Amino acid sequence: EVQLLESGGGLVQPGGSLRLSCAASGFTFSSYAMNWVRQAPGKGLEWVSTVSGSGGSTFYADSVKGRFTISRDNSKNTLYLQMNSLRAEDTAVYYCAKTCETSPGFCMDVWGKGTTVTVSS
Amino acid sequence: SYEMTQPLSVSVALGQTARITCGGNNIGSKNVHWYQQKPGQAPVLVIYRDNNRPSGIPERFSGSNSGNTATLTISRAQAGDEADYYCQVWDSTTYVFGTGTKVTVL
Q: Which of A23, A83, B77, B101 is spaced 20 to 30 A from A16 at the CA atom?
């Protein structure tokens, strides 16, 4: 069964840092681009970042560029999101999602259950 | 940056047809994907590349895309179809989600 399991969320003060992880299983992890998508309380979905299967190409939303870093360890089947300089508006549920095909830019066919990040003093 | 607009809400009678629109500049030239999200749950892909259904998605779900509007159609609506629906495209080097539509089945 294809599964994604996020972890690492929690309460952090403004300006702080947090690293999210997403453990993948049931598919050839290195063959697919992977994504982070977030949803603030009561709001819609917002794409955060995407990384290619090899990890060589990364893409970011303007709202997180320069503060967040996406990476992956294909030997561990794990996706990461390093979040620095956190702001109150980064408070959200963060979902890990698998791209339908090898390259970035396609649909997202498998989603994790999400991990909650709260930025507050 | 590219933007897509959806109606805030759509109501449909049980067993009737709901149509959810996603408006964007020349969206017909892009591949549009649709996601269903029920309260407290992760999104689920229901239509990809305009009009394709993933395995396990009922035939009642269909999509179209032309000009400046993409449409998700839910035929013979059921109570279980109540959810938020989002359109999505890839624009150059970014993903963009629509504003989301809450579907209520009466």
A: A23
One DSSP character per residue, B59-85 reads: TTEEEEEETTEEEEEE-S--GGG-EEE
Q: Report the pLDDT averaged over residues B26-46.
A: 97
Helices (H) and strands (E) in chain B, counts: 0, 9
Mean pLDDT of B54-64: 97
**Is there a contact between A44 and B100 if contact means CB atoms under 8 Å apart?**
yes
Q: Is the pLDDT of residue A102 over 90?
A: no
Q: Residue A71: what pLDDT?
A: 98
Query: What whole-number distance in Å separates Cα of residue B25 and Cα of residue B19?
Result: 19
Q: For chain B, give the mean pLDDT.
A: 97
Q: Identify residues of B whose CB sits under 8 angstroms from chain A CBs.
A: 1, 31, 33, 35, 37, 42-45, 48-49, 54, 84, 86, 88, 90, 93-100
Please tell me which residue of chain B has the smallest CA distance to A105. B90
3-state SS assignment for residue B29: helix
Q: Copy the structure tokens of residue A64.
A: 């997180």
Nearest to B32 by CA among B64, B6, B10: B64
- Residues of chain B with pLDDT > 70: what percent? 100
Helix then strand then coil, in percent of chain B rounded to 5, is: 5, 50, 45
Mean pLDDT estimate for chain A: 97
Q: Which residues of A touch B97 (CB under 8 A)?
A: 37, 44-47
